Amino acid sequence: MSIEYLSAVQKSGEYNKETQLYLKKRVLVTIQNLIKTFFNRKIEKGEYILDLGTADGTFVEVAKESGFKSSGLDIDQVDLESQTINMKDESCDLIVANSLIEHIQNPSNFLREVKRILKKKAFFVLITPDWKQNMKIFYDDPTHVRPYTKESLEFLLDSYGFKKVKVVPWLVCKPTWMWKIPFSFVIGRLLPFTGSRNPLIPSFLKGKTKSLLVICTK
């Protein structure tokens, strides 16, 4: 996210840091659940998490508060289409790119750099809009340049040598069985309650999604 775009969001009246910290805590929990569900592993405290497309840095704050080593990079620090990430080979235990890849026209350098700095058998997590569900509004964000589907992400990551690629609905803090059931993408976009904190509504019925959550290893 560019400095100008982030600044505009922060000045819009819709940005609230406390809300962002709350949301990023839920993102971290969801990623931990994802790793446990599909790999029966976990990221240990003290391991290193890199947040690419870090924006306001709240995910890094949450990761550090949770006992992880963490840092973030964004477009003002590195051009992921052409530049090298200033990190040693095989130095990251988890790399997260939340709402980033759709802003990159050519992902070749980005994916090669992620693979270079990722430790063997470490995790790469992507979150991006599902083109099939967002084609009417995808380009409403003027910084979106390249859309993806479940199939195109699977093909792309496989092409760059990532292993055990899993693409599931971006369901935040939901029961993990929802990632494994048939028609999970259909169910994810049909969940009836969005943004509700009503305690009388079961959590698995809250928060419909039109985004893709991807995990893979080196």
Your description of this structure?
- The chain is α/β, with parallel strands linked by helices.
- The protein has a single domain (3-217), classed as 3-Layer(aba) Sandwich (Rossmann fold), CATH 3.40.50.
- It has helices at residues 3-11, 17-39, 58-65, 108-117, 131-134, 150-159, 184-190; strands at residues 48-52, 69-73, 92-98, 118-129, 163-169, 211-217.
- The protein has a 6-stranded mixed β-sheet, with helices on both faces.
- Strand 1 (48-52), helix 3 (58-65) and strand 2 form a beta-alpha-beta unit.
Short structural description:
The protein has 218 residues and is of the alpha/beta class.
| CATH architecture assignment | 3-Layer(aba) Sandwich
Largest sheet composition: 6 strands, mixed
Percent of residues in helices comes to 25-40%
Termini separation (Å)?
26 Å
CATH superfamily: Vaccinia Virus protein VP39
Q: What's the overall geometry?
A: globular
**Secondary-structure element pattern, one letter each:** HHEHEEHEHHEHE
The CATH class is identified as Alpha Beta
Side by side, the strands of the main sheet go 2-1-3-4-6-5
Give the tally of structural domains.
1
Layout of strands and helices, then pairs:
Blueprint: H1 3-11, H2 17-39, E1 48-52, H3 58-65, E2 69-73, E3 92-98, H4 108-117, E4 118-129, H5 131-134, H6 150-159, E5 163-169, H7 184-190, E6 211-217
Parallel strand pairs: 1-2, 1-3, 3-4
Antiparallel strand pairs: 4-6, 5-6
Helix pairs in contact: 2-3
